[in-house]
Each structure stands twice: as structure tokens, then as C-alpha cells.
């Protein structure tokens, strides 16, 4: 029987109805790429045990990280902060930095990986970058498209098969400073960091946009294909050595 790689995806925090939820687009993207998604709600008591169960790990998008966790300030733009999710994902990310399974960070997930590494964030993008590029639509708040440029010699450029593309963006916070080891591999026209790769890890890529919201794009679907293929390779290497 063929073995499909198991991909763990972090979820949003518990809602008022008592449910842990996640946008189904993440699940669809992983399944379309050949992976089996399982959801990781932030009520886990032993994050380290997760690495025994999954072949790859996705840190999903969602609400803001508490700015106090990276030396930032809390203002009126900060929303949906949840201590349980912050604590779980930061602990999981610190473990992931030292693990050898593929890791993909998306939007908040990219920010989590940066904070877990010791970096900090821009609390509110318009305050730092102005309004040249809209990174999310306001009133109502929803996704919006803009262009990014990708470093030609990066893993991401090879994966996506391009050095410039439109992305679906939905955020008001972003990576500000990074710890050595991370490499910036994509930016928006206003200079905002749109993607980064960790050179001390076999496969760790983080993007600020939402590739799962572009299911008809070969370039964006390619991110999930490459991630799932890396997860499958990790599993096959493990079974051969077992």
C-alpha cells in the first residue's frame, strides 16, 4: 500500500462555540499536493510528540501574535491575540527549527517562525511602509492581490518557476528584523519582506502571502507540491533506515 506523507497544520484558537477551526483551503492544498492533512489545535500538552506523528509541518495564518512576546507594543490595530495559540506555536516552532522534517510557514506562520528564532515584527504595516501597496483590503477586511519579486537563486524561485508573481495578501503585520541564518528571498515593491528561507534547516520556507488561496496557479500550488514531496522523501528515508 502506498504511503502518503502526513502533514500537520496548526489551527486557529478555540472560538466562542468551543470549536477549533481552520480555513479549508489549507486542507485542499495539501490534499491536492498528495499529502494527508491532520489538524493541530493549540491545546497540545506535549508539542515534541507531534514530530513522531507527522512528516511535514505547516504553520498557518490567523490572528496577531502578542507584541509583548517580541518587544513590540500593543495598539488599537492588534487583534485576535490568543495566549494559548501563541505559546503552543512558539514552542512548536522552536522545536521545528532543530527538527529535520519539512516546515512551511504561511502569513502568521512566517511571523511565528521569525519570533521563535529571536526576530521581531512590524506591528502595523502601514505605519512602517505607508500605503503604496495594500497588503490587505480594509472595510471590510479581506484579501487583496499585489506583485512580489523573488530572488532568482532562491529555493522559492526554483519551486515556483518564476521571479515575479501576483500573490494573495491578507495581513497587517510583517517580519521586521531576522536572526542570522534566515535569508530574505522575496519582497513587495514597497520593500516589505514577503518570503524567507532558513539555511540551517533541510527544508524550511516561509511566505507572508496565502498560496492556498490561489488553487488554480501552478506557481503557488508548486509550493505545496514541493513541500509534500519533501515530506514524502523524509518518510521514505525513515522507513528505509528503520
Note the overall shape. globular
Q: Helix- and strand-based class?
A: alpha/beta
Under the CATH scheme, the architecture is: 3-Layer(aba) Sandwich
For the largest beta-sheet, the strand count, sense and barrel status come to: 9 strands, mixed
State the low-pLDDT regions, or none.
238-242
Strands of the largest sheet, in order across it? 2-1-3-4-11-10-9-6-7
Distance between the termini: 17 Å
How many individual domains?
A: 1
Notable features of this structure?
242 residues; alpha/beta; Rossmann fold; 9-stranded mixed β-sheet; two-stranded antiparallel sheet; 11 strands; globular; disordered C terminus
Protein described:
With about 240 residues, this protein is α/β, with parallel strands linked by helices. It has one domain: Rossmann fold, CATH 3.40.50.880. The protein has six helices and eleven strands. The strands form two sheets. The protein has a nine-stranded mixed beta sheet with strand order 2-1-3-4-11-10-9-6-7, with helices on both faces. Strands 5-8 form a two-stranded antiparallel ribbon. α2 packs across α3. It is globular and about 50 Å long. Residues about 240 have low confidence and may be disordered.
